[in-house]
Design goal:
There is one protein chain. This protein has 179 residues and is α+β, with helices and mostly antiparallel strands. Helices cover 18% and strands 23% of the residues. The protein has three helices and eight strands; from the N terminus they run βαββαβββαββ. The chain is globular and about 55 Å long. The N and C termini lie far apart (51 Å).
Length: 179
Amino acid sequence: MQNYRLTLAYDGTRYRGWQRLPPPAQTVQASVETALGEIFGQPLEISGSGRTDAGVHAACQVASFHAPKRPTDEVLAQLRRLLPEDIGALTLDYAPERFHARLSAVEKTYAYRLWNSDRPDVFARRYRAWEPRQLDCGAMRAGAAGLVGTHDFFTFCANRQMKKSTVRTLRRLDITQED
């Protein structure tokens, strides 16, 4: 079996998140697994570099899976035809045997976008939260500065019995305002 590295982009609006859930829940993982299962003629399980919540989008999410060896360009072309229009297969490469999308991840980037105006933006409402009140970006930057660095995020963890480390390093936190 060949190990593959797949990079995806998706509009998560109609999905219950990344992780496969019992039917009839629609998830990104289940949609990709269904398409790959059709291509390879057998059920396949993929691992994502992280999980997203319901309605969350991804511009560059890495996944990995094991399947019979096939030319990546052919599999990628088939995958692009089979996936729904709100999930895009960006790249597909052979990966080293020990590569695992989640366990091999060394960094993740998150972007949170707000539409700060007294008028709603109906065309971007799925991609930006609307906040009509005036924001103080200077105060937000000052508050965010304390988050940069290495911290234990245990208090934010829902699973209090978690055995893995809850220590994370936040390398950068930018607050920008577009005109």
